[in-house]
């Protein structure tokens, strides 16, 4: 992903240069934590760098600054520095900064020159262009940068004004509401049969290591609704195997980490227990790990990135299911399955690893079982019965009105 040059002549570069002149010098090094590789990364000499190579989820996101005007590049470098300094995840910082590639010359001049009193009208015109969400997130980050350094009348007291500026609406759960996100009951049965058979073969050491790893990754996506990044990040330190006696299945506990948190510090451990019948998959992986004498920090599945884990799971599902599926489909299906079984908002949020309980309310909204439970609960409510009677009779007495 690269920033793109706007080849049109800038209408007014003076405001851009004035703002950049008021910004402090960039530090000699920008450091950030890469939680996927558990490494502290450094971007050295950022002021002179033509590119930031940002490591996130096992991949590298390139932000090329030599494709934009120099002053605009400096501004975007400050935006990246500010977002990273607020402990946002590296991927978020990179995506917001890359949002600047969608700006035209009039957008930058308008944002920088509007000031707190004029930003509303400027934003209305900017918003009407229907740019990607990251572009508007980048614009808000630029305004917050002006607040931080008290430039052009901005100050920290205007953060609420910036927060109130609208962002494009996108229904992330449209496929959940339509049902397209879920795999069928027959497909679920096919996944379960595959895992049962793979576990039996793994118990007899009949599978190649990569086949066992792929099956175990599918298990994590199906049973625990984990995202590919969470699956790919697993190390042998995160897997605890307790072997039983002869002819007894082992006990396997896995510690995942929360993902898709904007801040890396928001990630919390998620302890899960593997279904007994499927523990031979992890037992076999652990046995080969012990035999090879690898470091405990090695990846359990040998995946070098979230993208690789996603591809391997999708490839396996293409072979298993007629229409194929992805790890995301398995996550949605697991969530809906749990809600249909009667899980509360708190239980679902804990299962999915959400820090906000309202994030997954859509699964309750689309659950026929939950709707039936609500109707039964209302049916025994005296207040509900009274309201229903009023609706039926189309009459309300003084006492009922009170």
UniProtKB/TrEMBL annotation:
InterPro entries with a match to the protein in the record: DNA_brk_join_enz, Integrase-like_cat_sf, Integrase_catalytic
Pfam (any one): Phage_integrase
Tyr recombinase domain segment(s): 190-376
Presence of keyword Cell membrane: no
Name of the protein in its database record: Tyrosine-type recombinase/integrase
Organism: Luteimonas salinilitoris
Keywords: DNA recombination
Domain of life per record: Bacteria
């Amino acid at each position: 992903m690269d920033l793109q040059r706007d080849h049109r002549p800038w209408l007014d570069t003076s405001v851009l240069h004035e703002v950049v002149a008021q910004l402090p010098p960039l530090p000699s090094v920008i450091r950030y934590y890469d939680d996927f590789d558990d490494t502290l990364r450094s971007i050295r000499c950022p002021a002179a760098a033509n590119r930031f190579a940002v490591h996130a989820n096992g991949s590298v996101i390139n932000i090329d600054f030599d494709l934009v005007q120099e002053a605009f590049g400096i501004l975007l470098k400050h935006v990246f520095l500010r977002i990273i300094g607020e402990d946002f995840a590296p991927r978020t910082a990179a995506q917001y900064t890359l949002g600047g590639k969608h700006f035209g010359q009039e957008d930058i001049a308008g944002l920088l020159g509007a000031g707190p009193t004029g930003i509303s009208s400027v934003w209305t015109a900017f918003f009407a262009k229907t740019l990607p969400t990251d572009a508007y997130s980048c614009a808000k980050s630029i305004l917050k940068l002006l607040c931080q350094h008290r430039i052009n009348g901005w100050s920290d007291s205007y953060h609420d004004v910036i927060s109130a500026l609208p962002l494009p609406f996108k229904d992330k759960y449209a496929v959940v509401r339509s049902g397209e996100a879920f795999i069928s009951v027959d497909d679920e049965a096919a996944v379960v049969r595959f895992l049962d058979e793979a576990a039996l073969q793994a118990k007899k050491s009949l599978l190649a290591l990569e086949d066992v790893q792929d099956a175990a990754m599918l298990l994590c996506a199906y049973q625990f609704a984990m995202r590919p990044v969470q699956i790919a990040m697993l190390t042998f330190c995160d897997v605890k195997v307790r072997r039983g006696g002869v002819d007894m299945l082992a006990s396997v506990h896995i510690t995942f980490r929360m993902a898709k948190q904007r801040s890396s510090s928001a990630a919390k451990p998620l302890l899960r227990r593997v279904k007994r019948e499927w523990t031979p998959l992890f037992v076999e992986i652990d046995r080969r790990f012990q035999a090879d004498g690898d470091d405990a920090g090695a990846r359990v599945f040998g995946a070098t990135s979230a993208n690789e884990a996603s591809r391997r799971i999708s490839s396996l599902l293409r072979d298993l299911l007629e229409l194929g599926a992805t790890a995301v489909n398995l996550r949605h299906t697991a969530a809906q399955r749990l809600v249909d079984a009667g899980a509360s908002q708190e239980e679902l949020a804990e299962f999915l690893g959400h820090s906000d309980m309202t994030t997954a309310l859509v699964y309750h909204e689309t659950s026929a079982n939950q709707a039936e439970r609500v109707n039964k609960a209302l049916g025994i409510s005296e207040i509900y019965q009274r309201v229903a009677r009023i609706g039926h009779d189309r009459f309300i007495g003084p006492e009922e009105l009170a």
